[in-house]
Input
Amino acid sequence: VEAAVTAAPTIDIAAIERELRQLWQENAAEAGGQAVTRALTLNLVARAADSETAEVISALVQRLTASHPNRTVLAIVRPEAEAQLEAFVQANCLLTQPGLPQLCGEQITIDARGDAAALVASLVLPLLVPDLPVALWLPGPGAFDDALLPRLRGVIDRLIVDSRDSAAPARDLAAMVAFSAAPDVPGRRAPALSDLAWSGLTPWRELTAQFFDTRVLLPHLRRIDRVEIDVVPGAAPNPVPALLLAGWLASRLGWAPLEEAVSVEGAVLRLHLRRAAVGVGPSAIRLVTVEIRSAAARDGGAPGLAALRLLAVDGVRASFAVERADTPGFARTTAQVGDAPPVGRLARCEEPDTADLLAAELRLLSRDRTFEAALRAAGAFAARLP
Amino acid sequence: MDAPVQDNPLRSGLRIGRTPEPCTMVIFGATGDLTSRKLVPALYNLARERRLPGGFSVVGFARRDWDDAFFRQTLLDGVNANSRSGAAEAALWASFAQGISFHRGNFDDPAAYATLAERLAELDAERGVGGNRVFYLATPPESYHDIIRHLGEAGLNRSPAGGWTRIIVEKPFGRDLQSAKELNQELLAIFEEEQVYRIDHYLGKETVQNLLVFRFSNGIFEPIWNRSYVDHVQITVAESIGVEDRGGYYDRSGALRDMIQNHLTQLLTLTAMEPPVAYDADAVRDEKVKVLRAIRPIAPEEVAQFTARGQYGPGSVSGRPIGGYGGERGVEPGSQTETFVALKLFIESWRWAGVPFYLRSGKAMPRRVSEIAIQFKTVPTMLFADTPMNDIEANVLAIKIQPDEGITLKFGSKVPGQSQIRPVTMDFRYGTSFGVASPEAYERLLLDCMLGDGTLFTRRDEVEASWSLITPIHQGWAAGPAQPFPNYEAGSWGPASADELLARDGRAWRRL
Output
């Protein structure tokens, strides 16, 4: 990956566009007759609070060019600094295989300090490429308090946050629920919400769902009584991913929280739910317990989810487990029903980095209803946290 | 019996499709090239992408005296050399290889099938496979008959315990209409049509599938996709290599059987078909068969008018010298086998009446390229007085299948500052809009078979309909005079007769 960068301070929108045009011409000339392809699929607006974050975001955006060639508008917003406004343009070019055309996205960085911080939204709007989706990415904590959000809410198609960064999980989950509950208005869909914490659960959800693609195992899914979620705590423990995972199971399987839905015992968080009992009559219920526990990190293992086990104990015993394997980046899946031998395999369960998670969320074109239902359930759990 | 699990509530919102049920894939001819070069790398990549369930097993069935360990090592070498994801990851391979075993047997030995049945029953119990089986015929076609018959005799054509059994048949599917019909009869005496998956790997290619998406998910192309706007269609599948070490096989086959009957016919039907009522196996294949039935057959006495054929002589491709076909190993002296063929076909339907479809395919061409080009009619009158009428080129929509997948639209544009009109192209290339690597054709097809989706496989009537177009051409060629082969130089675009085929209509092949 090689990036071509030219810089020219300016705040004149027409000048920025001119700079970009020139950049393309220069790139085409440098490519020595090889076609340079501008294939934009979306506008990505990102906000950084400092230069270090901006550099991290720039690097991520360059990696994103491969799967989502885009125009990125990166706003470095520093209201506390001395007033100053600058803008830079750059092309993010990927050198693909020799002989193939060079693929470039484009990036405009706006550095707004002091009073100029209030102007950022008005600079972003005219810089968006028309008729392409707009995603707003607000990394770090406090996304919902960001001044950019209300100004841009009317034009964005997707808001991307990361609740793993959350400093106040219950409050942030509530804000996310409220955001995603906004109804569509005629002629315009309400913006979708993406949480990179949820996106990071995808391999876990896939590996869990796959057990029940098999006809003989599917009936056991309605019989689950107990769920164990093991989490290796990080430096700042955050229950959100585990709550989202529990919320996903509860919303998909129709488990309703009991009156006293949450209890804490030492490092164990228990969620108490009920489900319809199977084969006993329409009104019979059974209890389901979801236990979120701390686990020790394996050698070289990263913090995060370590295991998800679904157990049916009533009648025929059945267990379905996805557990991190000793080999980093892999999980072992095991299904066992009654006395039959356990059936398992090793499967990739990588810890995706932020660029991968962003790419996965940007692939979605509409609202993720499964996520929204899981989010509502997780929000309800979080609201009951002591 | 094959009802898929549609009601798994945890599937909702997941971005990859459902996983097939655990099954055992029995590969006949497992020591062959196809297994280690294509099939097992495809299966490994499916496992790597989490598309295969726990319990998935492979049994290699072949004559050689191999054991499990040697078989596994051979397959691992094959994956390391041929997988699109690079060398196998050790931990993942170890888990995948646990399900691989070798079963030694002769294809004509009933006892080998009895022991195979026992082995499969063991796997059902040990690995939770539930009686689900795929039999893959990766042998030379001469062995199909024995394998199909013995599978039936051993009762392996039906699964125990509510599982499913499917059989994948590799090409070539017959060598003429008669033999294709016989093979179908043999298969369908033992298996139901729903169990039979006739593979044409071209249909597993992403761009080929995208042809349907392109046509039926865009509102702007379908209204002009007919005889009112389309002048003609050119379909080219060119290979830059010669027959290499396949001379013996190829000399009995030829380009018409090897490429046109299957791959180019598939491209033709997908280009010309009407919108299906649904995207499912029968609806799509019904429409493809309708196209085949609407093609006016080329009668044996018409071959000079509608076909051109050639055989390459010595030459060079991309600076690499290539010997003539006649000198390749396994080729009969004085062989009349064609390594190049061009056809002019008409589809007698309301949509396509009068629009010629020109097909060409050859070996030892200047470059490897596959594309479908829709050439539109030119404008009726010339508006711009300073430009001579014949300077206006027709619009062409080219769908490139390989090597550089994409779609190109050619249109006329004014040259800045001059009163001249020049053709320019608007390019969409997969590689530049989707950075994700496309899966190999075999990955998609193996997965589809395990999921019970036959959409991208060839149905009985389809294969017979395509042979019924091809066989009369062979008959016409055989009845005519011997050809002055070789008649094109390796590294050229085929014989002069191919150019004449279009020149007679006032047209020319696209320069590719």
Summary: Chain B has a mean pLDDT of 92. Chain B is about 35% helix and 20% strand. Chain B touches chain A through 46 residues (CB under 8 Å). Residues 375 and 396 of chain B are 5 Å apart (CA to CA).
